[in-house]
Amino acid sequence: MTAISSPSETGVTRRGFLHALLHEPLAVVSLAVLAIVVSACLLSPWLAPYDPLAQSLADARQLPSAAHWLGTDNLGRDVLSRLMYGGVPSIAGVGLCIAVFLVLGVVLGLLAGYLGGAVDRVISFVVEILMSVPSIIIVLAVVSLFSRSLNATMITLGVLGSGGLIRVVRAATLKVSKDLYVDAARVSGLGGLRILFRHILPRLSGPIVIQVALFAGVALGVQTGLGFLGLGTPPPNPSWGGMVGEASLLVQVFPWLLVPSGGIIALCTIAFALLGDATRDSFATRVRRSSGRVPKRRPDSADVPPPGAGLLTVEQLTVHFGDPERPAVDRLDLTIDKGEIVGLVGESGSGKTVTALACLGLFASTAHASGHIWFGGHDVVTARYRELEEIRGAGVAYVSQEPMVALDPSFTVGTVLREAIRANRRVGRTEAKRIAIELLEQVRITEPSSLLRRYPHELSGGMAQRVAIAIALAGNPSLLIADEPTTSLDVTVQARILELLRTIRQERGMAIILVTHDLGVVADICDRAVVMRGGAVVERADVEELYAHPAHEYTRELLRATPSIAERAA
Amino acid sequence: MSALLTVDRLQVGYGRGRRHRTVISDVSFEVAEGETVALVGESGSGKTTIGRAILGLTPASGGRVELDGRNLLGLRAAERRRIAADLQVIFQDPYGSLNPSLTIGEILTEPLRIQQRRGRAESQRIVDELLERVGMPASASYRYPAQFSGGQRQRIAIARAVSVAPRLIVCDEPTSALDVSTQAKVLRLLAELQQRTKVGYLFITHDLAVVREFADRVIVLRHGELVEEGPARAVCDAPQHPYTRSLVAAAPVPDPVLQRARREELARATAEEFDAPASVPVSSRDLDVVIEEQSL
User: Fold this and answer.
1) I need a labelling partner for A327 at 20 to 30 A (CA). Which of A189, A367, A529, B6 fits?
2) Residue A514 belongs to what H/E stretch?
């Protein structure tokens, strides 16, 4: 049920990617800087104010002026013009390197990830070799072999660097090709190439852009580094690296010369790195943190719990997420008495889970809540963190749909359980262990001491849910909120968990709020049921009454829609 | 009714040599034209694996699967493409089964244009018709999957499956991620399409209540083996095999009075069945836990 509550969970759409990227200010700025630099260089024959080779010894070593925006060098050549001309081999080199990097990385990565088997093994082997050879030595060897051919060097660098991209693309392909829509495309009889390029590749654009941006910075560094060493463009022709080299010789007498050449390299490298960062940010899902933060509403001194109220009393609870016109929960009233099991029934979007979490004082950070939830003299809606700590665990406990969520995969059952016990009672380690075993016995686990040493992944779904219930019982709560506790379980396991909840209620006199969409489960275990729709209660009644004489049309519709394994009387 | 789909002693296994594990062992059944056959079982029963083997998404290690007399196992991509028009699928997860980066129109026209080599205009016309038939507005064509609810997406997935007029659709838990009222509507849509086109459904599900109301015949699986087979109503109302009996007994009925009676009867039956020796003091509950423990 919760699985289909939020349509924004699925991946980024094609439009979404560019759109999201252009909403990152960093990305826009980086792209703009790169675009300006690249176009200035490429258009240098038309834009450059001077001939980059024209010497004028009279104007040597000038600081920036109206005539020479970035000053002049040792031979009186215009620095700006030399930068613009000198950028061309750098851009060409980086472009060539990226092209090789991209083609090899994407094609081999896709093939390895999609085909798997022998192809994957061969490609992965090659990648391991690529990643283990010292690339700078190979690059230097290529430079000397191909007598200063920058192209050969940059191609080599692209090949050597592609190992990283192959790995990233392979991993992403493996993940995406497990998506059901890829299976659906296969069943439709679409060819492998079409599936790869139309259905898988677009989903990988984010990681690829990140890798390319980061690698472009590296390529620029290597390209200018070779120029600095005098292995690139032969002088007097300008290149960024060469200009840094020339400036470094004069750093004592004319330090300014290092600023434009070093600056442009730094600027481009930073732009590439920030573009990569911004792309990653635009992909990072914005997690809506569900915190214990108290919603903004000051407690009213006149607010007192109603006399003679039940264990938990909800009065006019309203929760909305920014839009008061469309509340998730709308003026809800609810009373839970000691020891009763109340079903909170509804379909997705009915507000049943929001209500249940509100009873624990759990509101999303975007939530605005009003009304009261009285429990043990506290108003959960306005309670401070300290009060909530007191209420949770010892007063109200929670069991979720996914038992595995309650269990930290890196700790044993024993550790998690003891932690929960010691959070609620002042006991020593041995005493905590004794209580842990007792709790596991209460949830009908036969060999509790051996279970304490197990990790969550070693448990079946039913066992994990029993452990989650044991953790919930650790604080000896008087109210248990169970949110779809059996929805992800097999039907025979579900029957046992429901039986367990029934026994616990009998043994402890504990009340249970059972959030569920399943009218069969409600019929099996609940004393009363509250039917919700669109945040409001449409009907509340004892279950026998509700099923025999549903008063509201929506309840009747739900009952009609629920399939039954046995012939119903009605 | 002649058999549309024949599955004969199907075997699926993973690994080789000593690490070989059989997932499906010798499962045989048939699906006739216009018939709905349900594959029912709990998690790990192999019901989804059988569906995937029929679709060619998981290799079978033995047996025979035929659609209309044409072999379905071990096909090459080109041969499978020829079958594709007759064999389609609807998956459980309506969020994963549609490519999030394509519009609904692109998703639906793709099989028509690539596989059936129809023109752009003709494909679009067929898609508009399809959308109408599954109860979606034609404007849906220009929108992306993320803009639809789970039920609407499942309708789109159904439209994609029926677009090429298949003879058989493998429905893998098509409604288990949906709300009950949406489930009822989607099942009604599937039934309607079946009446019109005589398509056969292999309906994979864990929900016996749905089986009883929707399927013609049912096959109960456990640990990759066929446990019981028969008309859906008969199997649900009078299960023969103890495992089927336990499945039926565990499914809660949306009627508190009836459900209490069933529960009490079940407790009585288990108590009698497990009238164990006095040295082993077990209640029915403890025994359940033992069983669960062993299947960890």
Assistant:
1) A529
2) strand A511-516
Give the separation between CA B163 and CA B154, rounded to whole angstroms. Answer: 14
Contacts of A517 in chain B (CB under 8 A): 179-180
Give the residue on B whose Cα is nearest the Cα of A555: B181
H/E element holding A213? helix A205-228
Q: What single-letter amino acid sits at A358?
A: A
A41-44 contacts at long range (C-beta below 8 A, 24 or more positions apart): A41/A84, A41/A85, A41/A87, A41/A88, A41/A90, A41/A91, A42/A88, A42/A91, A44/A81, A44/A84, A44/A85, A44/A87, A44/A88
Q: What is the ipTM of this complex?
A: 0.82
In chain B, the residue whose alpha carbon lies closest to the alpha carbon of A186 is: B57
Task: Calculate helix-pair angle for B150-162, B180-197, nearest 10 degrees.
Answer: 10
Low-confidence ranges of chain B (pLDDT < 70): 1-2, 272-296
What's the confidence (pLDDT) of residue A304? 63
Shortest distance, CA B223 to any CA of chain A (angstroms)? 14
Of A459, A524, A557, the CB nearest to B181: A557
CB A4 within 8 A of CB B178: yes
Token pair for A533: 């729709």
Q: Give me the amino acid identity at A285.
A: T
> What is the assigned CATH class of domain B1-86+168-238?
alpha beta
B144 vs A13, A498, A522: nearest CB? A13
Q: Do the Cβ atoms of B111 and A1 come within 8 Å?
A: no
What percent of chain A has a predicted confidence (pLDDT) above 90? 29
Which of B81, B97, B285 is closest, CB to CB, to A189? Answer: B81
Separation in Å, CA of A292 to nearest CA in chain B: 29
Q: What's the pLDDT tens digit per position in A428-474?
A: 888 999 999 999 988 888 888 888 998 888 888 888 888 999 988 88
- The rounded distance, in Å, linking the Cα atoms of B143 and A463 is 43
Note the pLDDT of residue B112: 87
Tell me the pTM: 0.77
- Rounded Cα distance, B6 and B124, in Å: 34
Chain A CA closest to residue B175? A1
Domain range summary for chain B, segments of one domain joined by +: 1-86+168-238, 97-165, 239-296
Q: How much is the average pLDDT of A314-321? A: 89
In the prediction, which pLDDT does A242 show?
87
Q: Is the pLDDT of residue A264 over 70?
A: yes
Give residue A231's pLDDT band: very low, low, confident or very high (50, 70, 90). confident
> Mind telling me how many Å the CA of A129 is from chain B's nearest CA?
29
Q: Number of CB pairs < 8 Å for A and B?
A: 233
